[in-house]
């Protein structure tokens, strides 16, 4: 939930549009539809936007990738608690993105920096590549650098660039997460295969059972991911408390 320590709105509408990769017209349209909260009005009647607006725009983008209409997105957002923090919205967006198809995008360095909202050094690009956020696909003497970018990881990767932790530690943490999540995915797949899929194969002639299996398959991934995120958050909180109590 929101806290008093959150970053205050400082982005102009032009800066927000550049960071989110949308047009100013789109932001204003979303505001009139109630999809975005109004900006904070500062001196000289200039509207300022913050992390909540950026996170909400990212969530809207993911819902659109799912094929939802604006009317459906409007109903979806109305069901969310009104005091979700940018962090909560980012987690919610990540859960939505888990069952969206992979959609890597090609971008120049200038486009990357526009989306990141900051200049990117060669070292930054190397770290983003090491985190599998992007892959260099072109560029040479006299030509612009081009990258294949995972838009779902770009914001997270850029945020990690400013974390006061050695880059080697960040990459080591990524390896730990990848190894353990892969193990969990393999165990869950085996469980689904042995306990659900095998009995289904024995009843393929039952139309109602086939329909139920298709429905289960469509809903399983987001539910499992949400369960994993919730369990991990609780486990991490407990482990951190225990570790710092032991100091």
Radius of gyration: 21 Å
Determine the number of helices (DSSP H or I, runs of at least 4 residues).
Answer: 10
Note the overall shape. Answer: globular
What is the fold named in CATH at topology level of the largest domain?
A: Multidrug-efflux Transporter Regulator, Chain: A, Domain 2
Give the percentage of residues in beta strands: 5-15%
Query: What is the chains' assembly state?
Result: single chain
Distance between the first and last residues' Cα: 29 Å
Count of individual domains:
3
**CATH class bucket of the largest domain:** Mainly Alpha
Catalogue the unreliable spans. 1-6
Structural class, judged by helices and strands? mainly alpha
CATH architecture of the largest domain: Orthogonal Bundle
Q: What is the average per-residue confidence, as pLDDT, rounded to a whole number?
A: 78
Short description:
The chain is mainly alpha-helical. It has helices at residues 13-20, 24-33, 51-65, 70-78, 86-97, 109-116, 122-130, 151-161, 167-201, 207-245, and strands at 40-41, 47-48, 105-108, 134-140, 143-149. The chain folds into 3 domains: 13-97, Multidrug-efflux Transporter Regulator, Chain: A, Domain 2; 105-161, no CATH class; 167-245, no CATH class.
